[in-house]
């Protein structure tokens, strides 16, 4: 029932778009910089989490490892976060890119004209590592749609990436649909209730007793 509802919402959102989006054939293998792979123990049995560059002192992680992870598909969304079909529960900000799930280190969203204070292009530099770039980035801004950071649309357009701003629930439903169709789609998602990632949750880190 959840998947049927998500698909209906996604098709409705796509039909309202003024920009035609042709259905693409499945993308050819992508190319990335040679960068080391990391994983975190707090993952589902079939999937590894990866950290964005800012979480590991700006060292990139390998987003295209040799293993073949299951497709990223959202099963449900609640106040506790986003749950994937493979059972992985994501409580904080996250990015879906090239079949990988990234922990996303971003400041909390404020109110008014300063809501994006502290946000910079560096928070999206993960998209510099992938060739070809995704066709579209779905930016889920939480429970409600918010205007994006002022720099973001221009920054992504320069890379050939279309930006769609939606609430996180609709971002997930649209991502499910487009990824099933073989589109080059990425999602940057803020949880319905904001939670930052704790240092102990990050790949390659540990806490002392």
Please summarize what this structure is:
By secondary structure, the chain is of the alpha/beta class. The protein is built from 3 helices and 11 strands, in the order αβββββββββαβαβ. This is NADH dehydrogenase [ubiquinone] 1 alpha subcomplex assembly factor 3.
Question: Can you characterise this structure?
Answer:
This protein is an alpha/beta fold and 209 residues long. It has a single domain (2-13, 30-107, 115-201), classed as MTH938-like (Hypothetical Protein Mth938, Chain: A). 16% of the residues lie in helices and 20% in strands. It contains 3 helices and 11 strands. It has helices spanning 2-15, 152-157, 168-180; strands spanning 31-32, 49-51, 74-78, 81-84, 89-90, 94-97, 100-103, 130-131, 136-140, 162-166, 185-189. The strands form 3 sheets. The chain has a 6-stranded mixed sheet. Strands 3-4-5 form a 3-stranded antiparallel sheet, with helices on one face. β9 (136-140), α2 (152-157) and β10 (162-166) form a beta-alpha-beta unit. α1 crosses α3 (168-180). The chain is globular and about 40 Å long. It holds the Pfam family DUF498. It is found in: Mitochondrion. One of its GO terms (cellular component) is mitochondrial inner membrane. One of its GO terms (biological process) is mitochondrial respiratory chain complex I assembly. Keywords: Mitochondrion.
Helical fraction: 10-25%
For the biggest sheet, the summary is: 6 strands, mixed
What is the global morphology? Answer: globular
How much of the sequence lies in strands comes to: 15-25%
Name the structural class: alpha/beta
The helix count comes to 3
What is the strand arrangement across the widest sheet? 2-7-6-11-9-10
Strand segment count: 11
CATH class: Alpha Beta
Mean pLDDT: 73
Sequence stretches where pLDDT stays below 50 over 5 or more residues? 13-43, 55-66, 199-209
Q: What is the element string, with H for helices and E for strands?
A: HEEEEEEEEEHEHE
Instruction: Specify the CATH architecture.
Output: 3-Layer(aba) Sandwich
Q: Which homologous superfamily in CATH is the superfamily? A: MTH938-like
């Amino acid at each position: 029932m959840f998947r049927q509802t998500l698909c209906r919402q996604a098709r409705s959102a796509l039909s309202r778009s003024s920009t035609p989006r042709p259905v693409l054939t499945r993308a050819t293998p992508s190319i990335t910089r040679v960068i080391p792979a990391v994983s975190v123990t707090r993952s589902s049995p079939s999937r590894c989490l990866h950290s964005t560059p800012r979480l590991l002192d700006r060292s990139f992680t390998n987003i295209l490892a040799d293993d073949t992870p299951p497709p990223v598909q959202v099963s449900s969304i609640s106040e506790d976060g986003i749950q994937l079909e493979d059972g992985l529960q994501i409580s904080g900000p996250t990015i879906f890119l090239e079949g990988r799930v990234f922990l996303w280190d971003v400041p909390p969203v404020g109110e008014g004209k300063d809501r994006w204070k502290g946000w910079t292009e560096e928070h999206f530099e993960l998209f510099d590592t992938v060739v070809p770039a995704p066709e579209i980035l779905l930016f889920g801004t939480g429970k409600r749609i918010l205007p994006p950071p002022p720099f973001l649309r221009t920054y992504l357009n320069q890379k050939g990436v279309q930006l769609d701003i939606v609430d996180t629930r609709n971002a997930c439903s649209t991502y499910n649909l487009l990824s099933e169709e073989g589109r080059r789609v990425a999602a940057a998602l803020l949880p319905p209730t904001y939670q930052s990632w704790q240092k102990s949750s990050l790949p390659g880190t540990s806490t002392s007793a």
